[in-house]
């Protein structure tokens, strides 16, 4: 006989089954022990009757404590009063790994749970989120491969900044200094000359000094880069990707979304095309809501939130001021002073989920912008080569995977969207 999952056992619904997992709850009286067992998919009530089992099995049942690992054999049957509608009448039970008193019970502080993240990951809340995270990653891969993009990779150690020096992590690299990647973009721009349409999902690092509920110092970004693509093509591509991810999660994880208390109807409403506005129009809207932002200043979290009070779907904001944008974002010839770039802002206060742009083709303009930012253009010589040999218009974007997960799951804090979060003040476990 083979071990099967609790879900398979419940599908079988009668007869003998062998299951294994961890003790979720246990209580016993003189002749009867109730053990709720969990595996990665479900929980089930198991009943051990002293009269029906060996002395060794009865001893194991009495010894079972929260989170010990167990193997159980018994007869499964429907039982309406049991937590998941089924019950196993146990014939054999073995403790595989004993458990000390599990430190997590009820009503702990957020910090305590973060300190014990390695154990808290077993909770139904975090396992539900991590299952959704897994769906989000596979949806991203599925969307891109269905649309002819190749998956490609860039180094984590980089000699250059991509998104400005202020959030770079420096690392000792033999006798030199390197940086942890902020984005694959510069390498992607070199790779499109052979593969044209590419994507990646990889970790990115930003020394963010902010302690907001939206910032991690290590997060995962899904990035894409494509030759011949203009900003509009990329906005459409991003819209499709967001809708595809949501559709896949609703299809595969409605149980988890329900457990998390997420209003699925809100997610079902998300459909492209999303509302678009320029940065200048966004400032006008803010002004109507009584908030003055001087033209040329970046939109902060509070301003994004204010704008999003008007919408229940993502909004695409384009044409931010060229001066405050990264060096690789070109000026829009139709709207001088602004860049051919876009951000997607999620509803319900989840902030910017995507940032993208067309790419500057004029190396002199890029050199000037780099110097202005205090960078040494000589370090970017290899990157400028990409414009020297058959340069083509191209565009790309990056989607913050944890931001999207936080939004889809309706989380209070982005930290719960990643198994082991890293922020300015959280580096363990
Ligand atoms: O807008 P960003 O900085 O864009 C880039 O890095 C481009 N080079 C991407 C590209 O065009 N290939 O970052 C992209 C997205 C943001 O919209 C946000 O969702 C997420 O990455 N992000 C963060 N997520 C969590 N914590 C942080 N500290 C983040 N910084 C950016």
Describe this structure in words.
This protein is α+β, with helices and mostly antiparallel strands. The longest helix has 23 residues. The chain is 31% helix and 26% strand. It is elongated, with a radius of gyration of 26 Å. The two termini are 39 Å apart. Helix 5 packs across helix 14. The mean pLDDT is 97. It has two domains: 92 residues, Beta Barrel (OB fold (Dihydrolipoamide Acetyltransferase, E2P)), CATH 2.40.50.140; 303 residues, Bira Bifunctional Protein, Domain 2 (BirA Bifunctional Protein, domain 2). The protein binds 4-amino-1,4-dioxobutan-2-aminium adenosine-5'-monophosphate. 4-amino-1,4-dioxobutan-2-aminium adenosine-5'-monophosphate binds next to strand 11, strand 15, strand 16 and helix 14.
Summarize the structure.
With 429 residues, the chain is an alpha+beta fold.
Question: Which homologous superfamily in CATH is the superfamily of the largest domain?
Answer: Bira Bifunctional Protein, Domain 2
Q: Output the structural class.
A: alpha+beta
CATH class of the largest domain: Alpha Beta
Which oligomeric state applies? single chain
Q: At the third CATH level, what is the topology name of the largest domain?
A: BirA Bifunctional Protein, domain 2
Query: Roughly what percent helix?
Result: 25-40%
Q: Mean pLDDT, as a whole number?
A: 97
> Number of DSSP strands?
16
Question: Rg to the nearest angstrom?
Answer: 26 Å
Number of helices: 14
What ions, cofactors and ligands are bound? Answer: 4-amino-1,4-dioxobutan-2-aminium adenosine-5'-monophosphate
Instruction: Give the termini distance in whole angstroms.
Output: 39 Å
- Strand content range: 25-35%
Strand order of the largest sheet: 6-10-11-16-15-14-13-12
Residue windows where pLDDT falls under 50 for at least 5 positions: none
Order of helices and strands: HEEEHEEHHHEEEEHEEHHHEHHEEEHHEH
Summed up, the domain count is 2
How would you sum up the major sheet? Answer: 8 strands, mixed
Named at the architecture level, the CATH assignment of the largest domain is: 2-Layer Sandwich
């Amino acid at each position: 006989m083979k071990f099967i999952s609790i879900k398979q056992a419940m599908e079988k619904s009668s007869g003998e089954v062998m299951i294994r997992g961890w003790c979720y709850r246990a209580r016993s009286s003189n002749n009867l022990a109730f053990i709720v067992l969990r595996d990665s998919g479900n929980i089930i009530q198991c009943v051990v009757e002293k009269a029906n089992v060996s002395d060794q099995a009865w001893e194991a049942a009495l010894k079972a404590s929260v989170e010990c690992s167990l193997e159980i054999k018994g007869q499964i049957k429907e039982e309406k009063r049991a937590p998941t509608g089924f019950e196993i009448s146990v014939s054999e039970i073995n403790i595989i790994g004993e458990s000390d008193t599990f430190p997590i019970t009820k009503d702990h502080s957020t910090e305590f749970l973060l300190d014990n993240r390695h154990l808290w990951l077993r909770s139904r809340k975090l396992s539900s989120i991590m299952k959704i995270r897994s769906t989000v990653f596979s949806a991203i891969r599925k969307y891109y491969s269905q649309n002819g993009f190749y998956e490609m990779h860039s180094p984590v150690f980089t000699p250059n900044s991509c998104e400005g020096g202020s959030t770079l992590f420096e690392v000792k690299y033999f006798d030199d200094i390197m940086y942890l990647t902020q984005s694959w973009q510069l390498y992607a721009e070199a790779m499109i000359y052979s593969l044209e349409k590419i994507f990646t999902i990889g970790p990115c690092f930003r020394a963010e000094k902010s302690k907001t509920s939206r910032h991690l110092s290590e997060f995962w970004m899904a990035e894409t880069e494509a030759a011949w693509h203009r900003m509009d093509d990329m906005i459409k591509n991003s819209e499709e990707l967001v809708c595809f991810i949501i559709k896949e999660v609703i299809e595969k994880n409605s149980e988890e979304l329900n457990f998390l208390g997420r209003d699925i109807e809100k997610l079902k409403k998300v459909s492209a095309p999303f509302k678009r506005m320029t940065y200048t129009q966004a400032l006008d809207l803010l002004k109507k809501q009584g908030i003055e932002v001087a033209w040329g200043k970046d939109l902060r979290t509070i301003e994004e939130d204010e704008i999003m009070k008007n919408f229940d779907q993502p909004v695409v904001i384009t044409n931010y001021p060229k001066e405050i944008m990264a060096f690789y974002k070109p000026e829009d010839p139709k709207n001088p002073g602004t860049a051919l770039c876009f951000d997607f802002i999620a509803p319900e206060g989840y902030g910017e989920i995507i940032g993208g742009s067309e790419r500057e083709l004029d190396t002199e303009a890029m050199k000037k912008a780099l110097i202005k930012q205090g960078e040494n253009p000589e370090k970017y010589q290899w990157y400028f080569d990409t414009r020297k040999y058959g340069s083509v218009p191209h565009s790309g974007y990056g989607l913050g995977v944890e931001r999207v997960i936080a939004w889809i799951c309706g989380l209070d804090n982005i930290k719960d969207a990643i198994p082991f979060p890293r922020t300015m003040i959280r580096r363990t476990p």
